[in-house]
Design brief:
seven-stranded mixed sheet, binds [4Cu:2S] cluster, Immunoglobulin-like, signal, binds dinuclear copper ion
Length: 694
C-alpha cells in the first residue's frame, strides 16, 4: 500500500480538491516591522569559542553541579554575551537553596515553591486532582519515543490509561500476534521490530479535533502510522520511500486533507550505495500522504536537512524547520554556517506542479524539485520559500489564529515569528519575519493558550517561558519585553504541549512540559532514569503558571496532543462489521481438516470456556484458528494463549482474530486465557494435543 505510484487521474482529482480547500487565506494580521537585523550574520565567537563549545561546556557543568561538585560551580562560566546567558541560572538540585541568579525583566515566578520542588511532593494541588472514580477532562496522547508506541494519559490526573503499540509487537494487546496486525507490521511496516515515535497528531475537521485518527511518525525507519481512535489500535503503516527518517509529522488543515512527514536525514536518492560522498546526490523530502488510503501522494525535495513541521490553519502553507544548510554529508560539516532556514511549502502550488507532470518519479513516487535553484522556485509562485533564520531552528508551530509560524531557535536564544499571510506577499522571504524575541537559552518547542501567549521550552535553562506573541511583533528583534513569565521545570524540557494547542481554539488551562531528565525527582531505579512529565495549570494569568504534578515517564515521550474528552468516542466493544473476518457465534464452531497437513478451527471464547475443551491435531499440521469473543459486556476480555507456539491473541468483546502456526512439536499444550476475566478465569483452558506423525 505504500510505495506504489497512485493512478494519475486520482491524483489530479485530489489536486483539484486540495486547491479548493486552500482557497481561503489566513486571517488578517497586523502589519509588523520586518527587521533587517532579524537574522544574524557571521559566526558567534566569544573568547575564541563557538556557541556549540559554550553550550557543551555549560551542559558539562550543570551535570556536575547536579552531582554536587562545587568545583564545577566555581568554574561555571558567568558569561555576559550578546546572545548567551550561560551563567544566568543554575541547575538546582530539588530543595537546594536558590543559587546565584540575575533577574530578568518581566520575569515573575522564576522559582516558586512548588516549582523548586521544595516539599518534594507531586500532585499536591487539590484543585487539579481527579478523585477516585471520576474521569479526567482530557485525553493526552504521548509518543513513546523508541518504545515505538503511543501512551494515553488522562489530564489533569496524569494517570496512564492505555498504551497503543504502533511500531512494535506487544503481547498484552495481542498486537503483532494475530494474522492481521502481524501482516501490518511485517508487510506494510517493513518488518522492523521497533520504531521511534515523536509526533502524535490527532485529525481535525474545521481546525478542531474530530477524534477519528491519530497519526505518528517513525523517526528510525522512515514510516508514518495511523491509529484508529475508535478502537485505539494502529490500523495502517506507510513505509515512506526516499526518506530515512520521518521526523516532523502533522497535517494539512483545516480538514486533514493530507498528512505530512518531514524527512530528516538526507540520503542519496536513490539510496543504492553509489554517490555516498556526493552532496548533490543527497536530498531530504517532505512527504504528503493521503489520510484515508495512507498512500504517498507526492514528495518535495529541498536543500538542507529538515526537522519539525506544522501546517497553517488555512490549508495553503506548511512550515518545516531545518539545519545543515551547508549540505554537509558528515556531522562535522553540518553546523558551520550560522544561518539555516524555515521552509514554507505552498501546497496548492505543489499540487499544480504534480498535475503538470513536473516531477521525477523515484521509487514509484512523484518527487517535485523544491530546492533553491529549482525552476519551480522561480517566478511569482515558488513552491518552497526559504525563510532565513539563525542556525538550526528546531520546533515550529502555527499560532491558533493562523497568523504566525513560530520557530524556536535551539542554538540561538530567540524565536522567529514568521507572518503566514506575509509569506505569500513579500519578495524576499526574510521580510516575512515579523518578530524575534529573545526568550532564553535553548528554545525547542512552542505551544499556545487561548489568550495570545506562547509557551516555549528552554532546554538549557530548564525552564518554560511564557511570552506574548503580538507583543513580540511590536517589539524590536532581540527584545525580552514580550516575556511574561518564566518557570523552572525539572529538568531540561524537550517538547511541551498545551490543551488543544494545535487547533484554532486551545483550551488554555493545562500545559505539560516533557522533560528529558528527572535526575533526583523520583526514587532511583538504576542508571536509566524515567523522564519527568510535568503538568502546569496555566489558566490564571494573574497567578502565573502553577506546577501541579510530576509524572515519571518511561523513555521517552517527545511530543503529545491533548484533546478534550468530548471529542473522542471510543468503542465499547468491537463491531463485527469492522473487520474482514467472519464472527464465530456460539453453536457455529467447527474443526475442519482441509488436507493431510492443514487444519482450520473456528471457535469462540466466553466466560469461562472455549468452544473446544480439547483439540487434536497431527505433528506438522499447519493450524489456523479463528476465534471470536462472544461476550457483549464491555470490559470482559479474553485471550487465547498457546504455550510453546508463541501465540497470545487478545480478544475484546465481539472481536475476532486469526492466527496460523505449525504444530511441529508433538505433546500436550494447555491453551489458556491470559486476561483475568471471571471467577473461573483460571479454569478457562483448552487442551491442545499434537499427535506424533509416524
Ligand atoms: S523532536 Cu524530540 S524534543 Cu523529535 Cu519534536 Cu524536539
Ligand atoms: Cu477468559 Cu480469563
Amino acid at each position: 500500500m505504500t510505495t506504489d505510484p497512485n493512478p494519475t487521474d486520482d491524483r489530479e482529482a485530489r489536486a483539484d480538491e486540495h486547491r479548493d480547500d486552500a482557497a481561503g487565506t489566513a486571517s488578517a494580521t497586523e502589519e509588523g516591522p520586518a527587521d533587517d537585523e532579524a537574522v544574524d550574520d557571521g559566526p558567534e565567537i566569544v573568547d575564541g569559542r563557538t556557541v556549540e563549545h559554550l553550550i557543551t561546556d555549560h551542559e558539562r557543568d550543570i551535570a556536575a553541579t547536579a552531582e554536587g561538585t562545587d568545583a564545577a560551580a566555581a568554574r561555571r562560566p558567568s558569561l555576559d554575551l550578546p546572545r548567551l546567558e550561560l551563567g544566568r541560572r543554575d541547575f538546582m538540585k530539588a530543595g537546594a537553596a536558590v543559587g546565584a541568579m540575575t533577574g530578568l525583566a518581566g520575569c515573575t515566578s522564576v522559582l516558586s515553591d512548588e516549582g523548586n520542588g521544595g516539599d518534594g511532593s507531586s500532585g499536591a494541588s487539590g484543585e487539579h486532582s481527579v478523585p477516585p472514580g471520576e474521569h479526567d477532562e482530557y485525553y493526552g496522547f504521548l509518543s513513546g519515543g523508541h518504545t515505538g508506541e503511543i501512551r494515553v494519559v488522562g489530564l489533569p490526573s496524569m494517570r496512564e490509561l492505555m498504551r497503543i503499540p504502533v511500531f512494535q509487537a506487544e503481547s498484552a494487546r495481542g498486537f503483532g500476534h494475530d494474522a492481521r496486525t502481524t501482516e501490518l507490521l511485517e508487510e506494510e511496516g517493513g518488518g522492523y521490530t521497533w520504531g521511534d515515535t515523536h509526533h502524535p497528531r490527532v485529525s481535525q475537521t474545521d481546525n478542531d479535533y474530530d477524534g477519528r485518527w491519530l497519526f505518528v511518525n517513525d523517526k528510525a525507519n522512515g514510516r508514518m502510522a495511523r491509529v484508529d481512535l475508535e478502537y485505539f489500535e494502529t490500523d495502517a503503516i506507510t513505509n515512506v520511500p526516499n526518506s530515512q527518517a520521518v521526523h516532523g509529522a502533522c497535517m494539512q488543515l483545516p480538514d486533514t486533507q493530507l498528512v505530512f512527514g518531514v524527512g530528516e536525514f538526507r540520503v542519496p536518492m536513490p539510496n543504492d550505495g553509489r554517490d555516498v560522498d556526493d552532496p548533490d546526490a543527497y536530498g531530504s523530502v517532505l512527504t504528503a500522504i493521503d489520510p484515508e488510503t495512507m498512500d504517498v501522494e507526492w514528495q518535495v525535495e529541498v536543500d538542507g536537512n529538515m526537522d519539525n513541521g506544522d501546517g497553517g490553519k488555512e490549508g495553503r502553507w506548511f512550515f518545516a524547520t531545518g539545519y545543515n544548510s551547508e549540505e554537509g554529508v558528515t556531522q562535522g560539516e553540518m553546523t558551520r554556517a550560522d544561518r539555516d532556514y524555515v521552509k514554507a511549502f505552498d501546497i496548492p502550488a505543489i499540487w499544480d506542479a504534480v498535475e503538470a507532470g513536473e516531477y521525477e518519479e523515484i521509487s514509484g513516487v512523484p518527487v517535485v524539485d523544491g530546492t533553491m535553484d529549482s525552476s519551480l522556485n522561480e517566478g511569482d509562485r515558488p513552491i518552497v520559500r526559504y525563510v532565513p533564520t539563525p542556525k538550526s531552528p528546531h520546533g515550529v508551530s502555527v499560532t491558533p489564529d493562523g497568523s504566525y509560524a513560530i520557530a524556536s531557535g535551539k542554538l540561538d536564544p530567540t524565536c522567529t515569528v514568521i507572518g503566514v499571510e506575509e509569506i505569500a506577499e513579500v519578495d524576499d522571504p526574510a521580510d516575512a519575519i515579523l518578530g524575534q524575541p529573545r526568550v532564553g537559552m535553548g528554545p525547542l518547542h512552542t505551544a499556545y493558550d487561548d489568550r495570545g501567549h506562547a509557551y516555549t521550552t528552554l532546554f538549557i535553562d530548564s525552564q518554560v517561558v511564557k511570552w506574548d506573541y503580538e507583543a513580540a511583533v511590536e517589539a524590536e528583534a532581540g527584545s525580552e519585553e514580550p516575556i511574561v513569565e518564566k518557570h523552572d521545570v525539572h529538568y531540561n524540557p524537550g517538547h511541551l504541549i498545551a490543551s488543544e494547542s494545535y487547533t484554532a481554539s486551545p483550551q488554555g488551562d493545562y500545559l505539560v512540559s516533557l522533560n528529558k531528565l528527572s535526575k533526583d525527582r523520583f526514587l532511583p531505579v538504576g542508571p536509566i532514569h524515567p523522564e519527568n512529565d510535568q503538568l502546569f495549570h496555566i489558566g490564571d494569568d494573574d497567578a502565573g503558571m502553577e506546577l501541579v504534578k510530576d509524572k515519571p515517564s518511561y523513555p521517552e515521550p517527545h511530543d503529545a496532543s491533548i484533546v478534550h474528552k468530548d471529542k473522542i468516542e471510543p468503542a465499547k466493544t468491537w463491531g463485527p462489521d469492522d473487520y474482514d473476518l467472519d464472527f464465530v457465534p456460539e453453536g457455529e464452531e467447527s474443526f475442519e481438516r482441509i488436507d493431510e497437513s492443514t487444519v482450520e478451527i473456528e471457535m469462540w471464547a466466553r466466560r469461562n470456556e472455549y468452544a473446544f475443551p480439547e483439540v487434536t491435531v497431527r505433528e506438522g499440521d499447519e493450524v489456523t484458528i479463528r476465534i471470536s469473543n462472544v461476550e457483549t459486556t464491555s470490559d470482559v476480555i479474553h485471550s487465547l494463549a498457546i504455550p510453546e507456539y508463541d501465540v497470545n491473541l487478545a480478544l475484546a468483546p465481539q472481536d475476532t482474530r486469526e492466527v496460523t502456526f505449525t504444530a511441529d512439536e508433538p505433546g500436550v499444550y494447555w491453551a489458556y486465557c491470559a486476561y483475568f476475566c471471571s471467577a473461573l478465569h483460571l479454569e478457562m483452558r483448552s487442551r491442545i494435543l499434537v499427535e506424533p506423525r509416524d
